[in-house]
Each structure stands twice: as C-alpha cells, then as structure tokens.
Amino acid sequence: MQGQVDIGGFGADSDLIWSALVTVNYVLGDRLSLSVGYKVLDVGYDHKGHVYDIRLSSPVFGMTYRF
Description:
78% strand, mainly beta, 67 residues, single chain, four-stranded antiparallel sheet
C-alpha cells in the first residue's frame, strides 16, 4: 500500500490546492507490477471575481514494467 499527499498554493497561484493518492500494489514477478487506487484533486482559486473551486476524484489504475 502506498499513499501520497501534496499541498500547495497558499496565495501564490491559487488560494489552496491539494491532492491525495492511495494505491494498493500487486507484484506479479521480477519485472511487472500492477497498481489500483483512488485520487482526489481539490483546487480553490479566486482572483478579481474569477472563481475556480473544484474537486475531482477518480479511481486510478497503473502498470509498471522494469527493464
């Protein structure tokens, strides 16, 4: 299992932006592994009347092949 959290913004480009990712990883051999998880991305932006406040979330799937 793997987790990752990113937090940023703080008034630089956006008021606040954060994302979180959690995956479960399955090793199928020396070279191949699969990942299944869930990701959330939240963006809050308000500048001169332009408001962009959104939260996106979705399952994620991945495959890694090592040479």
